[in-house]
Structures are given as C-alpha cells and as structure tokens.
Predict the 3D structure of the following.
Amino acid sequence: MNAKIFFSDFITYRLNVLAEAAIETGEVAFSELIGGSIREVRVLRIIDDYPGIGFADIVRATRLDRSLVSRLIQSLLKQGLIERRGAPDDARRYELHATELGQSKRASAQAITIAYEQLILSPLSPEQERAFRDALDILAEWVGSNVYEERAAELHAELVHNGAAPRDPE
C-alpha cells in the first residue's frame, strides 16, 4: 500500500482508514488459520465474554450493521462455534453462548490478534503506545457518554436549523 493512506485530516476518516487497513492485513491470516473472518472472531469474543448476550447488545457493542451481525451470527451457528438458547425470562428473546469449539477457536484467534496488534503498534515507543491507548480510552468514554449524545443532538439540530452552515467558533 502507498505510504500516504490518508487523504483527509478528519480524525474519523483517519481512524476508519487505519482500522480498515489493519483489518485487511490480518484478514488473510484469520481466514487461513482460523477459518473465519476478523468480524466473526469479534462477535465470537463478545459472545464468549458475555455469555447469554442478545442480538441487540452485539449490534451495539460492535457498531456493525444489524444485517451483517445477523449473517455473522448465522455463520457462527452453522460452524458450531456458538449456540442459541431461549432466554429464561422472556420467550421472545434468545441468548447466545460460545460452545467449547467456539472457545477453542477464540483462544487460537487471540494469538493472531496479539501478533497483528504488536505489528501495527511497532513504530511507537512504549510511551507513545501508552499515550495512544489512553487517548483512545478517553475518546471512547466521551463518545459513550450521555453528555456527548446530548451535544451531538444539539449540534444536529443546529446544523439542520442553519442548513448545515458551520457555526461560529466559540
């Protein structure tokens, strides 16, 4: 890939391009060594970490499209990596659980994930890596907060009201 992968300074664009480049690099290894995609492994990890989790919670946790999550779950079910059980408290809902095979495959995927994570972080010093992880934690907490959601809603209303004209800097 060309050394210049960013064609914009917008942070959301840059994060997305970086994530997609990292996924693309590791996807072949996951496919060959695990027999599944990175996204399948992500969903499997969530199900294994949170036994009994439901579909809607997986959609929220992954921020993937509902139809994609549905296809990933169906694939994991067909492979025997997860199982679906009726929720004991609500017959309309089902819970997902990793099978022993799923737990084993998840453990194998962990080693691949660690190796590729080390590769992508290798240009950073230990101090830079800590700062990067700290910054990600701060941003994740902020974006997940009620205050952020309220401000985003206010900004949206303001942009709609002003015809998407930029607001004056404060």
Q: What stands out?
A: The helical segments are 11-33, 38-49, 55-62, 66-78, 100-121, 126-143, 146-161. The chain has two domains: 11-122, 124-170. The first strand starts at residue 82 and ends at 87. Strands lie at 82-87, 90-98.
